[in-house]
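Why do we care about 3D structure at all? Because function follows from shape, and shape follows, mostly, from sequence. That is the central idea of this module. The next example makes it concrete: a single protein chain, its amino acid sequence, and then its structure expressed as tokens.
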Amino acid sequence: MMFLGEYKHSLDDKARVTLPAKFRPPLLDGLVMTAGTEPCIWVYPAEEFGKLAERINALPLTGQEANAFRRLIFGNAFDANLDKQGRVVLPEKLRRHAHINGEVVITGVGRFIEIWSPTEWQQVQQVMQERSAAETVWAKLGI
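And the structure:
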């Protein structure tokens, strides 16, 4: 399954977010949430996270960048399960990382999901639009 699309939701008073119904089937056997490399939360089906973990564990132990990435992903990872209503609790540590305090934007990015604060998501969207426009201009100029 591919996670696709953008959805807006709110956290409830217990810091739970309802994931879109079409995203739930691959998450029924468990999921792993971790800090993204940008201020967002990455959500993986447990099986898919296992594949990512294998690739990360294959990185050299002596590289500073590999070690930093390993710490970011594993040090901030949380196992979770959806409740009967398709909700999951977003841990405080991850909410702080992603600047989330109420509303969220949930995006499908292929093999995993990203959860953003609306403000951070808007900034990412703006950067993507600016890059896209710049790339078009560069292409026209032959750069």
